[in-house]
Specification:
The protein is mainly alpha-helical. 71% of the residues lie in helices and 0% in strands. The protein contains 4 helices and no strands. The chain is extended, with a radius of gyration of 19 Å.
């Protein structure tokens, strides 16, 4: 009931792209809070929770946070570069009618 109120009050007045963005952001926040509260093992926590640990009460350790973010992003970019041809062909084949 608590989470229903923002969606019923704000969602109808938003444009469709904004509606999608609001739903995606609330989904990501829900995943973060769920992983933060239920996951007690640090070895299997998601990267969002691990990055949050670099931000403390007295400041943020930006150097370490950017190093971990880059280390996590590099394999994703490499996989995308090699599979880009298949990703684009899949997107374009779904856009045409046969």
């Amino acid at each position: 009931m608590i989470l229903r109120t923002p969606f019923t009050n704000r969602m109808p007045i938003l444009a469709p792209p904004d509606r999608l963005h609001a739903a995606a952001c609330s989904d990501r926040l829900g995943e973060f809070i769920l992983a933060l509260s239920l996951n007690l093992n640090e070895k299997i926590q998601p990267i969002t929770v691990a990055l949050k640990k670099f931000s403390g009460q007295y400041g943020t350790r930006w150097n370490e946070m950017m190093a971990v973010s880059t280390t996590v992003a590099i394999p994703i970019v490499i996989v995308f570069v090699f599979l880009q041809r298949f990703i684009v062909s899949g997107i374009t084949s779904g856009a045409t009618r046969e």
